[in-house]
Specification:
Blueprint (H helix, E strand, L loop, with lengths): L1 E5 L6 E7 L2 E7 L11 E8 L2 E12 L13 H11 L10
Antiparallel strand pairs: 1-2, 2-3, 4-5
Length: 95
């Protein structure tokens, strides 16, 4: 990864990253507690030949979980929810 400079908002850095045979433009930002992750969580390791070159190690890829809901409720919470809101079979007896 090559760091090109500070981002427009001053909260990150604009970067160029070689991935496979291609080069991608992107932005790295610090993780903020309570804010969603868009993209990847990476660890950067400085390279000795230049202060603006880094090796990238992907720690987590948030793009891989797109389309699936977050699992934020415990099993006990789900059981309580189902006991209140789950559809129960109707009794089919006549009046």
């Amino acid at each position: 990864m090559l760091v090109c400079g500070k981002s427009d908002d001053g909260n990150g850095y604009d970067v160029l990253r070689r991935r496979g045979d291609g080069i991608e433009a992107g932005r790295v930002r610090p993780l903020d507690e309570g804010k969603p992750i868009h993209g990847e969580v990476v660890r950067l390791k400085a390279r000795s030949e230049s202060p603006v070159l880094f090796d990238v190690e992907v720690q987590h890829d948030a793009r891989a979980s797109i389309g699936r809901p977050a699992k934020v409720a415990s099993e006990r919470y789900r059981q309580g929810w189902d006991s209140i809101w789950a559809k129960r079979p109707r009794e089919h007896s006549l009046n």
